[in-house]
Amino acid sequence: xxxxxxxxxxxxxxxxxxxxxxxxxxxxxxxxxxxxxxxxxxxxxxxxxxxxxxxxxxxxxxxxxxxxxxxxxxxxxxxxxxxxxxxxxxxxxxxxxxxxxxxxxxxxxxxxxxxxxxx
Length: 119
Known about the structure:
alpha+beta; globular; 3 helices
């Protein structure tokens, strides 16, 4: 991922991380899923539910929320690799899983909410 994009993503994430952690906790508490996932993209997407858009905020990234189950259902995450994914994403209450989508590539990044380092 390009350094400039990561810096702007880090800044945007830090701006909204408290609200995101609360949203993740709601997903967990309401039993929607044990695996909430944030999608960050520069372009508009149809996957997940929009929570922040560059069109109505001063953020440079669009943010959507989804769950692992939706990503498996839509073929974004291979069903056979879901258990490996769950093992890597071991603390959804304190760690954000971000699917960073840039142009024609996508990568998962795990970031503690209090850290916001995006390394």
